Amino acid sequence: MMSLLDALADAPEATSLKQLAGATDLHPSTAHRILAAMCNARFVERQDAGTYRLGIRLLELGAIVKSRINLREVALPFMQELHESIGEAINLGARHDDEIVYLERTSSGRSLVRVVYLVGGRAPLHLTSLGKLFLAADNPQKIRDYAKRTGLPGKTPHSLTTLAALEKELDKVRRHDIAYDDEEAEIGLKCLAAPIRDDEGNIVAALSVSAPADRHDPEWVAKIKQTADAVSHALGYLGPKK
Questions:
Q1: pLDDT score at 68
Q2: Can you give the pTM of this predicted structure?
Q3: Residue 119 has pLDDT above 60, yes or no
Q4: Beta pairing partners, 47
Q5: CATH superfamily membership of 70-234
Q6: What is the pLDDT of residues 196-213, one digit of tens each?
Q7: Where are the domains of the chain?
Q8: What order of strands is seen across the sheet that includes strand 15-16?
Q9: CATH of domain 2-66
């Protein structure tokens, strides 16, 4: 059954019994029997031309699974593994209007900087590496609207407080699929973040590493990307559409 479902998923259009039997190494009579059972259960639909395609029941079940996914529960084991690897704080955040909301955090236990991203805490999008990922996914007009609404307030001399500076930074984020906070929320604190995508490719959250500037390591880029990708895959993301 699973091999037939995989073959149907790989096929760009409705597929004949002969093609499905060949793709799964099943005898045509066996494949026909299994397909008939799956048609009765609405996992597969049989077309008038005698071809088959995936059925609506799979969509219904997928929607149920998606609605029951708890992002924090999915991400936390990956966050803990990354935390153990690099020994610094790992943050999970999602966008709410013009702010990032921190959903989970692993503590490094050795930070000397003041900012502590408590679960439930909020921060402006343009001042955080997490928030920049969401802004980079917006179109130019939405970014201008954000700048107008918020006024782009700063917290340090490094904060991006002009639309031109923000747009330049977001262009880098789009090109590299990684975002930085270079002492923009607090002097002495650096962060870098990578996006988490759902099964449709939308950014639904992001992971960041935050640490004092003197402990910041460029090699974390690959690790945070790898971890964010792993969470994305767990949410059903299969990669960029070709």
A1: 55
A2: 0.70
A3: yes
A4: none
A5: GAF domain (3.30.450.40)
A6: 999 889 999 999 998 888
A7: 2-66, 70-234
A8: 15-16, 51-54, 44-46
A9: 1.10.10.10
